[in-house]
Amino acid sequence: MAFKKEVVEIIEPRDVFVGNPKAEVTLEEFGEYESEICAKANEFVKQLLQEYDGKIRFNFRHFPLTKIHQRSLKAGEAAVATAQEGKFWEMHNILFANRRNLGTTSLKLHSKEAGVKNKKFLDELVNATYGWQVQGDLKEGIDRGVKDVPTFFVNGILVVKPTYEELKKAIDLAIKNIGKKNLKPVVPYTVVLKKGPEKPIPASKQPKGAAVKTPVKEILKKEVKKSLTKTVEKVKVAVAKKATVIVKAPVKIAKKGIIKTVVKSKAKPVVKATSKTKRKTK
């Protein structure tokens, strides 16, 4: 008699939240457990969760910097393992408190302290049962432009300076914008396009998702209402000495020859261009 193989559904890191799981504002962090800076950031994450109790939820994504922190990968796997028993937050805080003691045996002891009862915990850790989940977080982080830890997002919008004050501002803006159609908490940026011949960038050299089709002059005529990613999809490097576009979005595609410089701007999120640009871009 044949038996069906038991299928165990793994709870992914992106589905693990601390705080109000139904909150409309999500504070998301890409970090790892050997980082001193991430440990400090975790303290003001606790403070934010307390201050905005019921209004926000927190999601931690794993981004182990294995070149400098060799034990961060297994620590991330251990956190995912404890999440399967609903003990992620307990383990999360214990790992930061013991960030200099993250050997495999120590991780087993930390899991017991967190209240994990899984007798196969150590075997699963050795066999990298949850390795794919950590690697999946790492890949997604890279795709979203994460280069260092900690990197924070509020409702998917990058917080450039991840200080307590800046995160608080981003959360306040996100709460203010709840219920408003087609509106997200955003930070204005000034994007200076590189000068060059009016020809599309080869598809092979374009950033992921970028289909350069529309000339710059069409973008300069109206207010930019979409994210930088969608804006760049419409940008074509045109004959212009200098074209300045101020957009309401985080910088996601600031590479591959499309954008020369990206700087934070206090200006209102509108589109403008110099008179020379208008004359030359036809």
Structure description:
The chain has helices at 36-51, 72-83, 88-97, 104-114, 121-126, 131-143, 164-176, 216-219, 228-232, 275-280; strands at 18-19, 25-31, 56-62, 151-154, 157-159, 188-193, 244-248, 259-264. The chain has 282 residues and is α+β, with helices and mostly antiparallel strands. The strands form 2 sheets. Strands 1-3-2-4-5 form a 5-stranded mixed β-sheet. A 3-stranded antiparallel β-sheet has the order 7-6-8, with no helix packed on it. Residues 183-198 and 209-282 have low confidence and may be disordered.
Distinctive features:
single chain, 282 residues, alpha+beta, Glutaredoxin, 2 domains, 5-stranded mixed β-sheet, 3-stranded antiparallel β-sheet, 10 helices, 8 strands, 34% helix, globular, disordered C terminus
Using the coordinates above, name the CATH class of the largest domain: Alpha Beta
Number of helices: 10
**Mean pLDDT over the residues:** 77
Helix content range? 25-40%
Task: Using the 3D structure, state the CATH architecture of the largest domain.
Answer: 3-Layer(aba) Sandwich
Q: For the report, how would you describe the main beta sheet?
A: 5 strands, mixed
Shape, principal axes of CA atoms: globular
- Beta percentage is 5-15%
Strand and helix order: EEHEHHHHHEEHEHHEEH
CATH superfamily of the largest domain: Glutaredoxin
Strand order of the largest sheet: 1-3-2-4-5
What is the CA-based Rg, rounded? 22 Å
Let me know the number of strands: 8
> Distance between termini?
75 Å
Class by alpha and beta content = alpha+beta
CATH topology of the largest domain: Glutaredoxin
Total domain modules: 2
Low-confidence stretches: 183-198, 209-282
